[in-house]
Automatic annotation (TrEMBL):
One function term, GO molecular function aspect: GTPase activity
Pfam families registered for this protein in UniProt: CetZ_C, Tubulin
Keyword Cell division: yes
Gene source species: Halorubrum vacuolatum
Entry GO CC: cell division site; cytoplasm; microtubule
Record-given protein name: Tubulin-like protein CetZ
Matching CDD domains: CetZ_tubulin-like
Family: Belongs to the CetZ family.
Function text: Involved in cell shape control.
Keywords, alphabetical: Cell cycle, Cell division, Cell shape, Cytoplasm, GTP-binding, Nucleotide-binding
């Protein structure tokens, strides 16, 4: 198999980060994408590491045992940052066996509302950038507004720090994706699956299997790296439609001219329509598309449906919408999904209402810092007290 797709080392920190990395591993196994070349989950809470299903136990790293005894940091992201800094050698030790020369980038994944992830992710990213030449990207999950003031404040603080420490920060906003009436756990499981599906298609674009279909215009890892170059915050759009997947024709059939022929106008219109839906529909981070610095379009599906004219029209439309002259595009032939999809990566978005809202929260928090600090300390104290009571029962 030729390796032109993205090969990643994943570091999940905190509960959300660990769960998402675990979901990536499951996606990798189910699709055979082979994107994940190394992965670890890092946490201060032992129970969160126990809740991981697919990542081997020796890849789950418990930090801060001397300070919080495996009980977590209680949404105190300053404590989360301190512990990550103190135990950075242990984290690095877990990555020493990863064949870094075979990977294209590191991806540090964290929920930005809790304590361990929001505090520790920027610390780990800074450390990786100091010792590796490969790009270090972040994948940050913003909490919903209903999760509480301390989580919103953590996200406001962490977002600024995290984006400064990575080569690009990909963002997924839970608030824009939660369905009304969903249970908290069920909601997060569904969100994680949606998130991984989208980023999984992005990172596996360009995969070419022996004897498989070859793209007309290959989207390789360098296209993704170039789109994410220049830093800042990025968002991802995705749209798909079910199609009747034609049976793949053998080589003899091709020589006889028996290949399946689809209506060119229909396939062109389908691609351009999907590009519009992906761009103007529900993005991982809702934003004003105009002013985007760079963009990448990937059309995925059975090759018979990947009309080159449609992809080029979609790319030009994306140029008009974003105002960017750096809009790359290509196709990703894949069979077995029964869908044609368009994925749009918007690199370096600037007009993001949610980020402005978080910035305002941070400003207001400075005025009430004493009250917020007290709330965070109370949460941590309550957590430690409840754990001590449980231990006294045994």
């Amino acid at each position: 198999m030729w390796c032109v797709y993205m090969k990643l080392v994943l570091i999940g920190i905190g509960q959300a980060g660990g769960k998402i990395v675990d979901e990536f591993i499951a996606y990798d196994a189910a699709t055979g994408a082979n994107v994940v070349r190394g992965a670890i989950a890092v946490n201060t809470a032992k129970a969160d590491l126990e809740g991981i299903d697919h990542l081997p136990r020796d890849r789950r790293i418990l930090i801060g045992q001397g300070r919080v005894k495996g009980h977590g940091v209680g949404a105190d992201n300053e404590l989360g940052a301190e512990i990550a800094e103190e135990d950075i050698d242990e984290i690095q030790g877990a990555l020493d066996g990863v064949p870094v020369h075979e990977v294209d980038a590191f991806l540090v994944v964290a929920g930005l509302g809790g304590g361990t992830g929001s505090g520790g992710a920027p610390v780990i990213a800074r450390h990786l950038k100091r010792i590796h030449t490969e790009p270090v990207y972040g994948l940050g999950i913003l909490p919903g507004n209903d999760e509480g003031g301390i989580y919103t404040l953590n996200a406001a603080r962490s977002l600024k720090t995290f984006v400064d420490e990575v080569d690009n920060l990909l963002v997924f906003d839970n608030d824009a994706w939660r369905q009304t009436g969903e249970s908290l756990k069920g909601g997060y499981d569904a969100l994680n699956a949606e998130l991984v599906k989208r980023f999984g298609v992005l990172f596996s674009a360009g995969e070419i299997r022996a004897g498989g279909d070859v793209a007309e215009s290959v989207v390789d890892s360098s296209e993704i790296i170039n789109t994410l170059a220049g830093g800042g915050i990025s968002s991802l759009g995705y749209a798909e439609v079910d199609v009747e997947e034609p049976e793949r024709q053998g080589l003899l059939s091709r020589f006889r001219g028996e290949e399946i022929s689809l209506d060119a106008t229909q396939t062109t219109n389908r691609i351009t329509s999907l590009v519009r839906k992906a761009t103007l529909g529900r993005l991982t981070l809702p934003c004003d598309v105009s002013g985007t610095e760079r963009a990448l379009l990937v059309a995925a599906g059975p090759p018979e449906y990947l009309n080159r004219k449609g992809i080029e029209r979609g790319r030009k439309w994306l140029e008009e919408q974003t105002g960017s002259m750096e809009v790359r595009g290509g196709d990703f032939p894949r069979r077995g999904e029964g869908t044609v999809a368009a994925l749009v990566l918007l690199g370096g978005v600037t007009n993001v209402p949610r980020v402005k809202e978080l910035q305002q929260v941070a400003v207001e928090a400075q005025r009430n810092i004493g009250e917020i600090t007290e709330e965070s300390e109370d949460r941590f104290a309550d957590l430690m007290d409840s754990d001590d009571e449980l231990e006294s029962l045994f």
